[in-house]
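[Meeting: bench + compute handoff]

Bench side (C.D.) handed over the final construct sequence. Compute side (W.E.) agreed to return the predicted structure before the next meeting so the bench team could plan truncations. Sequence as handed over:
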Amino acid sequence: MPAFDELAPDQKAVLQLLLKQGKTYEDIAGLLRLDAGNVRERALDALDALGADAPGTGGTLSSERQDELADHLLLQQTASQRARTREFLEGSAPGRAWARRVAGELRPIGGDALPDIPAEPTEVAEAFDALDERTAARERDERSSRLGGVLVLLAVGAVVGLLVLLLVRGGDDDPASQASSTPTTATDGATGTTGAGAAGFPQQQINLNPPAGQGGEALGFALISEGGLALQAEGLPQSDLYGVWLYNSRQEALPLGFAAYDRTSKRLAGAIQSLPEGASGFRNVVVTKQADKNLNTPGRVVLRGGIKLG
């Protein structure tokens, strides 16, 4: 079987005009002052040589079918003709084998202009099997990630007993040093009284994600259990000014305190033993990037999750 470079010069010239220049048989006939049928014959003879002894054909393709496939590969068909040829290729293994062999020889001059050859049924099945496996693997990874987040939060709760890592109020002191000091009982962000743990939320895990349209790699989890709250997040830039709030809007928000940023693990974490009075009126947990050490007004929301109300 000859390669493209071994074809007769006139055949190579016709194929280059068809595939590299996008000409039609009629265009070339006008340029060379030949009959369009004569131009087509040169092109078909060239493809017949390129596809000679293609494996899997076994001489089962009629000359009419082979000419049809040649017109298809040379982009010389109407839309309806292309549809019929593609339908034939989908059901003909010899047709696919011949078209693949010839398309491979034409690739250096045709490139991406060449039409796609339908995949073998086994290839389609394998592709779908591979897609199903990738989807299943991704779902397993997501479940594992979620479970890992819950286990970390539970571990935080077990280690610190849901004692306070969040300080309800900011102030003049460094929140990072406050968060790392001896835990103290949380105070209500609105009144300054000790929280009574009467939040009224059912036990739940809350996924924390960036607000819609914000994007970014940050994500986190919050866990509400026995009237307290623990959270962990990752993917946030280092800062000691991440505030945690119960939140309905910027005008209706209850501060829980600053979360501690661990520079080694690059994770944000915190817990509060008892949610303040009035917590049950809020529908979201948010993490904000504060401009200073005060929690008078929520800063820019970087993570947000909806609370399931009791």
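W.E. noted at the follow-up: The first strand starts at residue 204 and ends at 208. C.D. will use this when planning the next construct.
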